[in-house]
Amino acid sequence: SIQLLLDQYKKTDVEWLDAVANGSKGALERYMRLYPQSIHITEAKLLVDSIDWVQAKTVATVQSLEAYLSRYPEGAHIDEAKDMLERVKSQGAAEEQQKAIDACTRFFDALGMKNEELLTSLVAPEMTSFLHKTNATPEDVVRYLHKLYQDEQVEGMTYSVLGDWTVNKMETAMGEPVYSVQGMMEQKTLS
Question: β-pairing, 156-171 with 133-136?
Answer without folding.
Answer: unpaired
